[in-house]
Amino acid sequence: MHKPRSSMLLIVSPILFLSFLCALAFLLKPPKESPNPLQGRRAISLKSTLVEGVEKPKNAGTHQLEVPPPKQQSPPHPTPPPGSCLVSPNFPAQVSRFCPEKTDLKDYALPNASWCPDMLSLYQEFLEKTKADGWIKLPSFKSNRDHIQGLKLPSGLAVTSDKSEWRIFTRCIQVDGQGYEYVIFFHPSKKKSVCLFQPGPYLEGAPGFAHGGSLAAMMDETFSKTAYLAGEGLFTLNLSIRFKNLIPVGSLAVLNVDVEKIEDQKLYMSCVAQSKDQQTVYAKSSGKQVRQPQSCHHHPQNRWKETR
C-alpha cells in the first residue's frame, strides 16, 4: 500500500530547506586571503642573513633582500726571496738594518772546505727552510760596526776611531777552520735562532776538545744577535752556563736559542747546545739582555746601568 503524496512532501521539504541554508552560508562566508609567495622567500632570505652574520638592507617596495658583494681581501705582504735577508713589513726594522740588501762586505757565514759533513748537511737543510718556513740566514761580517750602521748607541758608549782592523771576537781567527766556524739562522715570528758551530784546533781546551770558554763566547754571540733582532737587545746583563759534555774539535754543535719573554727593558733567553742527532747535550745556558731605549741617542749611559 502506498503512502499518501502529501506525506512524502513533508519529509523531503525539510531536507531541501537545510541544503539551501548550507549553500547560502557557504556563499556568504568571506574568502580567505591567499598566501603571498614572497613571504616564504623573505623568511628564507632573513634566515640566511642571520646565518651569515651580515645585516642586509631592505629594498623599498619589495620583500627581496640585496646581498652585498664580498669584501676583497688585501694581498698578503711580500715575503723575502729564499735565503736572503730581505724582510717583509711584518719583520722588525732592525732585521733589514742587520742584513743589508747590497753590500761589498765579506760574509764569513758561508761554507768553506773546513766544514765537516754534519755542518754542511744541516746548513743546506736550514737553507731550504728559508724558502718557505720563514727562517733567515744571517750574514756574519768581521765587525758588528758593519751590522749596526746607522744605529745610535747611548751617549758615552759610542767610540770613535780611525782604525779599520776592528774584529768581533768570534771572527778574530782569519784562517778557515782553525777558530770559530759558525752560521746563525733566525726566525723573526718565533723569536728563536739556531747556530751551527764548529770549533777549530785554535779553540782547544782539554786535548782534542773545545775550550769551555769558546762555547760560552759562541752562546753569548748568538744571544746578542737574537736579542737585537727579536727585541732590540743591545748588551748582555748576565749569562749562566751549565756544562754537560765536551765538544770534540772539528765536530758540530747545534745551539738552539729561544727568547723566553720580553719584560720591561729586558729580554730573557735560553740555549741548549747539543749534537746533530740530539743524543748528546754539551751545555745549557740562560741569559738576560737589556733593550735599546726608545730614543737611544737622547738617553745617557746611566740609563743602561739602571736596568741591571
From TrEMBL:
GO terms for cellular component: mitochondrial matrix. One of its GO terms (molecular function) is long-chain fatty acyl-CoA hydrolase activity. Keywords: Signal. Residues 67-83 have a biased composition (Pro residues). It comes from the Eukaryota. Gene3D superfamilies: Hotdog Thioesterase (3.10.129.10). Residues 208-281 form the Thioesterase domain. Residues 282-295 have a biased composition (Polar residues). Residues 1-25 form the signal peptide. GO terms for biological process: cardiolipin acyl-chain remodeling; long-chain fatty-acyl-CoA metabolic process. Residues 60-86, 282-308 are annotated as: Disordered. InterPro entries: HotDog_dom_sf (IPR029069), Thioestr_dom (IPR006683). This is Acyl-coenzyme A thioesterase THEM5 isoform X1. It comes from Hipposideros armiger (Great Himalayan leaf-nosed bat). The gene is THEM5.
